[in-house]
Amino acid sequence: MGLNGSWTTIKKPSGDEWQEARFTTDDQREKREPVEVGAFKFESGSTDVALVLAGVHGSEPTGVEVALRLIDSLKSKRKRPNFTTIVIPRLFGPKRFAKKDLRYVVGEDALYRPKHGKRVMNIEPNRNLPRVGESYADVQDRGSRSGIELIDYYDRTFDYRDDKNVPLDTILADMMLAENRILVQIIQQEKPKRTASLHGKWKYNAFGDGPGIFVDPRGGFGPLLTWTKDGQIDDRLARAMVQTALKALPPSLIPSLKKIGSEAKKPWEQFHPFAGNLLSPSGLVSIDKGTVHYPVASHARGTSLGMWGSAEQLHEEGAPTLRDAMPVITVEIASFEQKVDPKQMIGPTLRSLLEDFLM
User: Fold this and answer.
1) Whose CA is closest to 304, among 57, 41, 22, 100?
2) Who's near 39: CB < 8 A, 6+ residues apart?
3) Cβ within 8 Å of residue 170, ≥6 positions away
4) Among residues 55, 143, 48, 134, which one has the least CA distance to residue 308?
5) How far apart are CA 109 and CA 173, in angstroms?
6) Smaller CB count within 10 Å for the chain: N or C?
7) Which DSSP category does 356 fall into?
8) Cα-flanking dihedrals φ and ψ of residue 253, to 5°?
9) Per-residue confidence of the chain (359 residues) as pLDDT tens digits?
């Protein structure tokens, strides 16, 4: 039981060449047609792999557009990256999301324990991954023994209906969604050195929790510092990506410092497309004084891709690790439409990927 699918080489008369694959998994729990995840691979001559994915939440379509533009750019070899690059442009298909809130995936009875007493209506797809340090085999083993695959960092199962941070109609599933099973197995198979996950953000004026570019660095981080030298390198990568994207922003998208203060007449007048990185309680700051980290306490219960990916994947004692820790860059593309047309953010985001993340 495991990952199905293999890379097929595509060659064009122009000389352009890449690989494509459609992956499924043998152990899908959903009682529906097999879920497929499409992926593209662009060889660079390097054995180091970078992964870019989008389509984790249905409410964030700009990330998918950036991923598709990246694929077009890599196909034409306009700029050859230093990394062999894998792009998953749409992890979850559009039919998988809840109609009332496209952020969530509609669940099925097979994804949770009967004791919950009601059908899962919504599942947060980015809190549906193995516990930090675990492999997919660990998850499968726990599921076969207890019927519960997923537990969080504190060994709690996901019956969180009384948690104020979880919507009342949302239960974090006991079983992994099929797409996440495929993603985890691709990561274990390809062992990327870094991953970028493309999302969207609707909040404004939120330092550390607004639109911008953030990193879960190797080794973790605290309120005041990143804990390891590798993690500090990851911070510098994220800061370089922010700087590159800022330089590519259309001037019309950058509000004045005056409007960001109390003189703003409307909320969107003080919106900055990198507010999460640059907008402190005292106003705009430079990226050198800004942040590339989410607030430490902002992660909801469950395990995100950033939490899982930035820690090494352990194995039995005495055996080598299955996968080294990797920085996970989360790109929260500004989508506050009264001020920022999300399409205007495609170019700056793409440029930060091509000039920094893949180099």
Assistant:
1) 57
2) 20, 21, 22, 23, 86, 87, 88, 186
3) 104, 121, 122, 123, 124
4) 134
5) 10
6) N
7) I
8) -90, -5
9) 589 999 999 988 877 889 999 999 998 888 888 899 999 999 998 999 999 999 999 889 899 999 999 999 999 876 679 999 999 999 999 888 887 788 888 877 777 665 555 555 578 899 889 988 888 988 898 888 887 888 765 444 444 444 444 443 445 678 899 999 999 999 999 999 999 999 988 766 566 678 899 999 998 887 777 889 999 999 999 999 999 999 998 877 776 544 554 544 544 455 678 888 887 666 666 788 888 998 765 555 678 899 899 988 776 555 667 889 999 999 999 876 545 566 788 899 999 999 999 99
CA 194 to chain centre: 12
CA distance 271 to 259: 9
| Residue 30 φ then ψ, to 5° | -65, 140
Phi/psi of residue 17, nearest 5 degrees = -150, 140
State CA 178 to chain mean position distance.
Answer: 16
Quickly tell me which residue has 């907008």 as its tokens: 279
Burial class (CB in 10 A: 0-12, 13-18, 19+), 39: buried
Domains of the chain (ranges; CATH) run 3-357 (3.40.630.10)
pTM, to two decimals: 0.89
Q: Which residues pair with 228 in a beta bridge?
A: none
